[in-house]
């Protein structure tokens, strides 16, 4: 190497050493498996990566780390700790007042975030997706609260009507009484 070339290279050395050679994107702490996530789930997981934290000392569902959003721990609202069917648990545990505008949107959003993160975790390990019923119910409740407060919902997939369909579709073997109650809630805005 020629001396002028070497001097030029040494001049830029401090700058090049301060820049990492490989830029890695940090994965969400809750996606611990190797099963590829569906595009929509991956998008949600990446969006939650900076919001949801994990507690690996607690394994509330399918040996996955506990997820925490805004102080709400999944382990404290885990449907699998109940004898109720997942949707019956959600209907009982995640009630809103009537009208839902007086419910805390922040609390319900944090609850939903923990469920969305846990679902991504479950999918990453190829686990059982019974979590979908309470997850969709929480999304439905968030949509009801927003609608009741007059907050516009611009994503057609997050409207009360669309989420009602998702809740009913993923209801599992619950009674017609449970399905009717969820349908009634869709009108209580």
TrEMBL record:
Q: What keywords sit in the KW lines?
A: Signal
Leader peptide range in chain numbering:
1-18
Q: Which Pfam families match?
A: DUF7143
The DUF7143 domain extends over 31-188
Q: Does the keyword Ligase apply?
A: no
InterPro entries per UniProt: DUF7143
Q: Does the keyword Signal apply?
A: yes
* PANTHER family on file: PTHR37592, PTHR37592:SF1
Q: What is the protein name given in its UniProt record?
A: DUF7143 domain-containing protein
């Amino acid at each position: 190497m020629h001396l002028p070339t070497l001097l030029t290279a040494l001049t830029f050395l401090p700058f090049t050493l301060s820049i990492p050679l490989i830029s890695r994107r940090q994965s969400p702490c809750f996606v611990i498996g190797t099963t590829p996530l569906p595009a929509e789930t991956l998008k949600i997981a990446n969006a939650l990566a900076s919001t949801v934290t994990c507690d690996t000392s607690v394994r509330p569902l399918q040996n996955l780390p506990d997820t925490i959003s805004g102080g709400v721990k999944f382990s404290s609202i885990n449907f699998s700790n109940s004898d109720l069917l997942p949707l019956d648990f959600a209907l009982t545990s995640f009630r809103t007042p009537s009208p839902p505008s007086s419910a805390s949107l922040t609390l319900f959003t944090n609850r939903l975030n923990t469920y969305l993160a846990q679902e991504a975790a479950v999918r990453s390990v190829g686990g059982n997706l019974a979590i979908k019923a309470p997850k969709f119910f929480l999304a439905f409740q968030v949509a009801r609260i927003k609608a009741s407060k007059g907050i516009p919902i611009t994503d057609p997939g997050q409207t009360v009507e669309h989420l009602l369909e998702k809740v009913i579709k993923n209801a599992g073997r619950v009674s017609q009484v449970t399905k009717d109650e969820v349908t009634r809630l869709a009108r209580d805005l």
